Amino acid sequence: MDTQYIKEINEISGKIIRVGGETPKVRFEITGGKVISCKVKEEDAKTIGKNLYRKMILSGTSCLNPNTLEIESFEIESFKETKNKTRKESWKRLTEIISPYFKEIDDVDEYMLKIRRGDI
User: Where do the domains of the chain lie?
Assistant: First the structure.
C-alpha cells in the first residue's frame, strides 16, 4: 500500500545550501536542521542561487509524511530573503513591540506570576 502524503500550502524558513541540478532544485536547511529538496522553476532557481547560504522564507506546497508530519518535499511558489539580525537586535525590536502593553504595570515579574497562578 502506497503512503498517502498530506499536501499543505505553507511557508518555511531556513537557509539555502545548494541550488541547481539537471532539473531545477533547491536544497534548503529548515529551522531545526533538517535538509529538504525543493522543486523550483528555472528562473526562480537563478534568483535564489544569488542568495546561497542566506536565510530565506519559501512559500509553496509541501508534502508531509502522514506518520511523522515532517516535510518530505516542497515545491517553491514564491520566496523572500529574511533579515539576518543578531539576537540582540531581535530582542530590541520585540521589546519595542510589546513594551506599550506593560507601561501601566509597575512590577512585570509579579504581574506574570499572578497570571500563572490564575489571580488575574
Answer: 6-81, 87-117
Global model pTM greater than 0.85 = no
pLDDT of residue 11: 93
Asked whether the beta carbons of 111 and 105 are under 8 A apart, the reply is yes
Q: What is the CATH number of domain 6-81?
A: 2.40.50.140
Sign of CA dihedral 34, 25, 78, 85: positive
pLDDT for res 1: 58
DSSP 88: H
Cell numbers representing residue 86 in the block? 543578531
Q: Which residues of the chain have pLDDT under 70?
A: 1, 84-85
Alpha carbon of 5 to those of 8, 12, 47: distances in Å?
A: 10, 18, 29
